[in-house]
Known about the structure:
Elements: H1 6-18, E1 26-28, E2 33-35, H2 38-51, E3 54-63, E4 66-75, E5 80-88, H3 94-112, H4 139-154, H5 158-164, H6 167-172, H7 175-192
Antiparallel strand pairs: 1-2, 3-4, 4-5
Helix pairs in contact: 1-2, 4-5, 4-7
Amino acid sequence: xxxxxxxxxxxxxxxxxxxxxxxxxxxxxxxxxxxxxxxxxxxxxxxxxxxxxxxxxxxxxxxxxxxxxxxxxxxxxxxxxxxxxxxxxxxxxxxxxxxxxxxxxxxxxxxxxxxxxxxxxxxxxxxxxxxxxxxxxxxxxxxxxxxxxxxxxxxxxxxxxxxxxxxxxxxxxxxxxxxxxxxxxxxxxxxxx
Length: 193
Protein backbone atom coordinates (compact mmCIF):
# COMPACT_ATOMS: atom_id res chain seq x y z
CA UNK A 1 0.00 0.00 0.00
CA UNK A 2 1.03 3.59 -0.36
CA UNK A 3 2.47 5.46 2.64
CA UNK A 4 -0.81 7.31 3.11
CA UNK A 5 -4.31 5.97 2.38
CA UNK A 6 -6.57 8.52 4.11
CA UNK A 7 -8.18 9.82 0.90
CA UNK A 8 -8.49 6.31 -0.51
CA UNK A 9 -10.10 5.07 2.70
CA UNK A 10 -12.66 7.90 2.66
CA UNK A 11 -13.50 7.29 -1.00
CA UNK A 12 -13.67 3.51 -0.50
CA UNK A 13 -16.02 3.90 2.44
CA UNK A 14 -18.36 6.04 0.34
CA UNK A 15 -18.17 3.69 -2.65
CA UNK A 16 -18.84 0.59 -0.54
CA UNK A 17 -22.02 2.23 0.71
CA UNK A 18 -23.24 2.39 -2.88
CA UNK A 19 -22.09 -1.00 -4.18
CA UNK A 20 -24.86 -3.57 -4.41
CA UNK A 21 -24.10 -7.29 -4.42
CA UNK A 22 -23.24 -8.58 -7.87
CA UNK A 23 -26.08 -10.45 -9.56
CA UNK A 24 -25.62 -14.22 -9.46
CA UNK A 25 -26.60 -14.90 -13.05
CA UNK A 26 -24.18 -17.71 -13.92
CA UNK A 27 -24.56 -21.39 -13.04
CA UNK A 28 -21.93 -23.89 -11.90
CA UNK A 29 -23.21 -27.26 -13.12
CA UNK A 30 -20.85 -29.25 -10.87
CA UNK A 31 -22.43 -27.81 -7.71
CA UNK A 32 -25.80 -26.68 -9.12
CA UNK A 33 -25.15 -23.24 -7.69
CA UNK A 34 -25.52 -19.71 -8.97
CA UNK A 35 -22.61 -17.30 -8.80
CA UNK A 36 -21.71 -13.79 -9.88
CA UNK A 37 -19.25 -13.94 -12.76
CA UNK A 38 -16.49 -11.38 -13.38
CA UNK A 39 -18.70 -9.26 -15.65
CA UNK A 40 -21.43 -9.09 -12.97
CA UNK A 41 -18.87 -8.08 -10.33
CA UNK A 42 -17.49 -5.33 -12.60
CA UNK A 43 -21.01 -4.10 -13.36
CA UNK A 44 -21.76 -3.82 -9.64
CA UNK A 45 -18.62 -1.83 -8.78
CA UNK A 46 -17.95 0.29 -11.88
CA UNK A 47 -20.18 3.33 -11.23
CA UNK A 48 -19.56 3.66 -7.45
CA UNK A 49 -15.78 3.40 -7.90
CA UNK A 50 -15.74 5.91 -10.73
CA UNK A 51 -17.96 8.34 -8.82
CA UNK A 52 -15.49 8.39 -5.90
CA UNK A 53 -12.26 8.58 -7.91
CA UNK A 54 -11.32 4.91 -7.49
CA UNK A 55 -10.18 2.37 -10.06
CA UNK A 56 -9.04 -1.24 -10.17
CA UNK A 57 -5.91 -2.52 -11.93
CA UNK A 58 -5.20 -6.25 -12.10
CA UNK A 59 -1.85 -7.75 -13.08
CA UNK A 60 -1.90 -11.49 -13.89
CA UNK A 61 1.19 -13.67 -14.15
CA UNK A 62 1.99 -17.35 -14.32
CA UNK A 63 3.98 -18.90 -11.49
CA UNK A 64 4.97 -22.44 -10.68
CA UNK A 65 1.82 -24.49 -10.13
CA UNK A 66 -0.66 -21.78 -11.03
CA UNK A 67 -1.33 -18.13 -11.62
CA UNK A 68 -1.19 -15.02 -9.49
CA UNK A 69 -3.26 -11.89 -9.95
CA UNK A 70 -2.25 -8.71 -8.17
CA UNK A 71 -5.31 -6.53 -7.63
CA UNK A 72 -4.68 -2.85 -6.97
CA UNK A 73 -7.27 -0.35 -5.80
CA UNK A 74 -6.12 3.12 -6.88
CA UNK A 75 -7.38 6.54 -5.83
CA UNK A 76 -7.08 9.65 -7.98
CA UNK A 77 -4.76 11.09 -5.32
CA UNK A 78 -2.18 8.42 -6.12
CA UNK A 79 -2.88 6.41 -2.98
CA UNK A 80 -3.31 2.65 -3.43
CA UNK A 81 -3.71 -0.69 -1.72
CA UNK A 82 -2.95 -4.03 -3.34
CA UNK A 83 -2.96 -7.76 -2.67
CA UNK A 84 -1.96 -10.79 -4.70
CA UNK A 85 -4.03 -13.97 -4.95
CA UNK A 86 -2.46 -17.29 -5.98
CA UNK A 87 -4.71 -19.78 -7.77
CA UNK A 88 -3.51 -23.34 -8.49
CA UNK A 89 -4.05 -24.47 -12.08
CA UNK A 90 -4.70 -28.14 -12.87
CA UNK A 91 -3.75 -27.91 -16.55
CA UNK A 92 -1.09 -25.49 -17.69
CA UNK A 93 -2.71 -24.80 -21.06
CA UNK A 94 -4.54 -21.75 -22.40
CA UNK A 95 -7.88 -22.86 -20.94
CA UNK A 96 -6.51 -23.70 -17.50
CA UNK A 97 -4.47 -20.51 -17.24
CA UNK A 98 -7.36 -18.38 -18.55
CA UNK A 99 -9.80 -19.93 -16.08
CA UNK A 100 -7.36 -19.46 -13.21
CA UNK A 101 -6.81 -15.80 -14.11
CA UNK A 102 -10.54 -15.12 -14.46
CA UNK A 103 -11.31 -16.83 -11.15
CA UNK A 104 -8.47 -14.96 -9.41
CA UNK A 105 -9.54 -11.63 -10.86
CA UNK A 106 -13.09 -12.07 -9.60
CA UNK A 107 -12.05 -13.14 -6.12
CA UNK A 108 -9.33 -10.48 -5.95
CA UNK A 109 -11.85 -7.71 -6.60
CA UNK A 110 -14.44 -9.19 -4.26
CA UNK A 111 -11.90 -9.59 -1.46
CA UNK A 112 -10.39 -6.13 -1.84
CA UNK A 113 -13.82 -4.46 -1.83
CA UNK A 114 -15.29 -6.78 0.85
CA UNK A 115 -18.11 -7.99 -1.41
CA UNK A 116 -20.11 -10.85 0.04
CA UNK A 117 -20.40 -14.10 -1.86
CA UNK A 118 -21.37 -17.72 -1.34
CA UNK A 119 -19.69 -18.85 -4.57
CA UNK A 120 -18.50 -22.42 -4.90
CA UNK A 121 -17.74 -22.62 -8.58
CA UNK A 122 -14.14 -23.73 -8.34
CA UNK A 123 -14.05 -25.58 -11.62
CA UNK A 124 -13.55 -24.30 -15.12
CA UNK A 125 -16.79 -25.69 -16.60
CA UNK A 126 -19.10 -22.74 -16.03
CA UNK A 127 -22.31 -22.45 -17.99
CA UNK A 128 -24.74 -19.60 -18.48
CA UNK A 129 -27.78 -21.89 -18.53
CA UNK A 130 -30.82 -20.65 -16.65
CA UNK A 131 -31.52 -22.48 -13.40
CA UNK A 132 -34.71 -23.97 -14.87
CA UNK A 133 -32.64 -25.98 -17.36
CA UNK A 134 -30.57 -27.73 -14.70
CA UNK A 135 -31.43 -31.37 -14.06
CA UNK A 136 -33.68 -31.91 -11.08
CA UNK A 137 -32.48 -34.46 -8.55
CA UNK A 138 -34.60 -37.57 -8.39
CA UNK A 139 -34.10 -38.97 -4.88
CA UNK A 140 -35.19 -42.53 -5.73
CA UNK A 141 -32.93 -42.60 -8.81
CA UNK A 142 -30.01 -41.25 -6.77
CA UNK A 143 -30.57 -43.94 -4.12
CA UNK A 144 -30.65 -46.66 -6.79
CA UNK A 145 -27.54 -45.27 -8.50
CA UNK A 146 -25.66 -45.13 -5.20
CA UNK A 147 -26.58 -48.74 -4.38
CA UNK A 148 -25.23 -49.86 -7.76
CA UNK A 149 -22.19 -47.62 -7.40
CA UNK A 150 -21.39 -49.01 -3.94
CA UNK A 151 -21.63 -52.56 -5.29
CA UNK A 152 -19.37 -51.68 -8.22
CA UNK A 153 -16.85 -50.04 -5.86
CA UNK A 154 -16.78 -53.14 -3.64
CA UNK A 155 -16.25 -55.37 -6.68
CA UNK A 156 -13.43 -53.21 -8.11
CA UNK A 157 -15.55 -52.18 -11.08
CA UNK A 158 -16.37 -48.56 -10.21
CA UNK A 159 -14.58 -47.10 -13.22
CA UNK A 160 -16.42 -49.36 -15.67
CA UNK A 161 -19.75 -48.66 -13.93
CA UNK A 162 -19.11 -44.89 -14.13
CA UNK A 163 -18.27 -45.06 -17.85
CA UNK A 164 -21.56 -46.85 -18.48
CA UNK A 165 -23.69 -44.12 -16.87
CA UNK A 166 -25.52 -41.59 -18.99
CA UNK A 167 -24.83 -37.88 -18.46
CA UNK A 168 -28.25 -37.42 -16.82
CA UNK A 169 -27.49 -40.26 -14.38
CA UNK A 170 -24.09 -38.74 -13.57
CA UNK A 171 -25.77 -35.38 -12.94
CA UNK A 172 -27.94 -37.03 -10.27
CA UNK A 173 -24.88 -37.74 -8.12
CA UNK A 174 -23.63 -34.93 -5.92
CA UNK A 175 -19.99 -34.21 -5.18
CA UNK A 176 -20.51 -35.91 -1.81
CA UNK A 177 -21.94 -39.02 -3.52
CA UNK A 178 -18.95 -39.18 -5.87
CA UNK A 179 -16.50 -38.71 -3.00
CA UNK A 180 -18.15 -41.53 -1.06
CA UNK A 181 -17.88 -43.88 -4.04
CA UNK A 182 -14.23 -42.97 -4.61
CA UNK A 183 -13.37 -43.61 -0.94
CA UNK A 184 -15.22 -46.93 -1.04
CA UNK A 185 -13.30 -47.99 -4.15
CA UNK A 186 -9.98 -47.01 -2.53
CA UNK A 187 -10.89 -48.87 0.66
CA UNK A 188 -11.86 -52.09 -1.11
CA UNK A 189 -9.01 -51.93 -3.61
CA UNK A 190 -6.60 -51.32 -0.74
CA UNK A 191 -7.75 -54.42 1.18
CA UNK A 192 -7.30 -56.66 -1.85
CA UNK A 193 -3.58 -55.83 -2.22
